[in-house]
Design a protein that fits this description.
Distance between the termini: 31 Å
Strand order of the largest sheet: 1-2
Largest sheet: 2 strands, antiparallel
Structural class: mainly alpha
Shape: globular
Order of helices and strands: HHHHHHHEEEE
Helix content: 55-70%
Low-confidence stretches: 146-150, 165-176
Length: 176
């Protein structure tokens, strides 16, 4: 079973995964970048806290207040900063990323938070969710070309969820 299918199984919500696959993929690329290059021993509980902090920041900003939920843990804050970068690109529709409203981004962050929490409950180690995230994404963002969607989740003949990249206009993640 592929890592992406295991992630979908954690949430038990394949419809959400299909509807928001671009945003979820790009958030996972950000997580993967931090995990591979900066905080290799990051734990699922820390990722869950980072998702919650960024979602709370978006919720607060949408009410008109400018407040960033920050963590005293530098590992959580490092991931939070990366997630804020990806979220901002989607809010502005920059670098070829689909423009998404704050409410949808909050839903995506809460979805990832639920996946991390579900992985913790399965007790398969302290980084089961993060291991799946790293395995499920490449090091490129899924972006849009002017004529429409180029990266999307589909089902193959066996019913497995797969990422169909089609013609990909990818923004490479900088390796540190």
């Amino acid at each position: 079973m592929s890592a992406l299918v295991k992630l979908v199984d954690l949430s038990r919500d394949p419809d959400f995964e299909l509807r928001h696959n671009e945003v979820l993929h790009n958030l996972r690329v950000g997580v993967s970048h931090i995990r591979r290059n900066r905080v290799r021993e990051l734990r699922d509980s820390e990722a869950r806290q980072a998702f919650a902090n960024v979602a709370d920041t978006l919720r607060t900003r949408s009410s008109g207040l400018i407040y960033n939920f920050r963590s005293p843990d530098p590992r959580v804050q490092t991931l939070s900063d990366e997630l804020v970068t990806v979220v901002t690109l989607h809010l502005r529709g920059e670098k070829g990323m689909v423009e998404v409203d704050a409410a949808t981004l909050m839903q995506c962050l809460k979805y990832l938070e639920r996946q991390a929490a579900a992985a913790e409950k399965e007790e398969r180690g302290t980084s089961y969710f993060l291991d799946l995230v790293v395995q499920s994404v490449a090091s490129v963002f899924v972006t849009r070309e002017p004529d429409g969607l180029v990266g999307r989740l589909t089902e193959d003949e066996e019913g497995d969820v797969v990422l169909d990249l089609g013609r990909l206009d990818a923004t490479e993640m900088g390796e540190e």
